[in-house]
Design brief:
The protein has eleven helices and 13 strands. By secondary structure, the chain is an alpha/beta fold. It has two domains: 25-86 and 104-242, no CATH class; 285-363, no CATH class.
Length: 369
């Protein structure tokens, strides 16, 4: 434990310093998060848009897909990405086709997203590529061509930003650059879907130019909760195992496991029959050591050699207790053994030594009245 303590302290110090460095580094949020993320504070992030709207709206990050998120019916969701992701269906192979299937785009709105919009929500979907067919805008301004948002003027753009070459059948153009649409709007039930071909309009470095801030206010409306969809940027929260089991309709299975656990603990708490003897071995390991040494000596030595070793042990014990050496020591050992070298005589000699030792220790004790 003492050897591991310095290593544990060093690891804790390293982790503390790393966390402090990340927290105090102002540039960390510029490098960690994706472009168009509301947590990104760089020029290509949406932190200014999120912070500005938070002063007059309820603003939060959406870290779960709409199918598992419980949003207000009138909520507004900003989904701003550079490119709409592609997906591969390994089963989608035509007859006679070899190699991997071609990538495809998912439907623009899945069932949960369309249901959210139809109930009164607003989805603002901004992407340069992958939503609809696009081409270069070719102009530096996007002019409003639909009578909505009366006080909002034209939007300032770059000529290399993208514009939609066509829209969905029920969608109309709100802002256009030349003959191409920049912002399209579609009514779906009680809600609205906005498509924007130039997500750069909402970035931190472009929000102060032209009428971009007023455009953001128009998209946000008045008094409606706003969510920035961070799922495409990899900021996803875990629902936990219980929520997943609930979504998978595993409630009866959880109840069955709970009842089985209760039955098991109740069964274990009641004794059947006489109690089991809880005898535990209390002997010291020295007993086993002596037995193993005796077996070893018995195996590698003869009876005469064992008696000789036993007699030598008696001689050393007498020398230790009496301090005798040489002939005097041998004479004392012979007196204790009666001049014999058998097992009984040596055992009796050790017993006499123990008796003399006890008597001597008692004689040294002070007398008490």
């Amino acid at each position: 434990m003492r050897r591991a303590l310095p290593l544990v302290l060093a690891a804790a110090a390293f982790a503390t310093l790393a966390i402090l460095w990340i927290v105090t580094d102002r540039r960390a949020s510029q490098r960690i998060y994706d472009d168009y993320s509301s947590a990104n504070t760089s020029a290509k992030g949406l932190s200014l848009a999120s912070g500005y709207l938070a002063k007059s709206h309820k603003v939060a990050m959406l870290t779960r897909p709409l199918a598992r998120a419980h949003l207000e019916p009138n909520a507004i969701v900003f989904r701003v990405v550079d490119e709409r992701p592609l997906f591969f269906d390994p089963e989608d192979l035509k007859e006679g086709q070899f190699g991997p299937p071609r990538p495809k785009h998912e439907p623009l709105l899945n069932d949960a997203e369309e249901s959210f919009v139809r109930r009164g929500g607003r989805l603002v979907f901004a992407a340069q590529r992958g939503v609809l067919a696009t081409s270069d805008a070719g102009e530096k301004f996007a002019r409003k061509v639909f009578p909505i948002w009366r006080n909002l003027g034209d939007l300032q753009m770059n000529s290399d930003w993208n514009a939609f070459t066509s829209l969905r059948p029920r969608m109309h153009t709100i802002f256009a650059s030349g003959a191409h649409a920049i912002v399209g709007r579609e009514r779906i039930g009680a809600g609205e879907l906005f498509l924007i071909s130039a997500p750069q309009l909402l970035q931190n470095d472009a929000l102060a130019r032209g009428n971009h801030l007023q455009f953001l206010n128009a998209l946000a409306g008045t008094g409606r909760p706003i969510y920035f969809d961070e799922v495409p940027h990899g900021i996803v929260s875990d629902d936990g195992s219980l929520a997943l089991m609930k979504d998978w309709n595993l409630g009866p299975f959880l109840i069955l496991i709970t009842l089985a656990a209760m039955l098991y603990f109740w069964r274990e708490s009641r004794r059947i029959g006489p109690p089991v003897d809880d005898y535990r071995e209390t002997r010291s390991d020295a007993v086993d050591l002596v037995r193993s040494l005796a077996a070893l000596y018995y195996k590698v030595t003869s009876y005469g050699e064992s008696l000789s070793l036993y007699h030598d042990a008696l001689t050393r014990t007498v020398a230790s207790q009496t301090g005798l050496r040489g002939d005097a020591l041998r004479k004392r050992v012979d007196e204790l053994t009666g001049g014999k070298r058998d097992l009984t005589a040596i055992n009796d000699a050790f017993a006499k030594l123990q008796t003399h030792r006890r008597i001597g220790s008692q004689a040294q004790r002070p007398m008490s009245l």
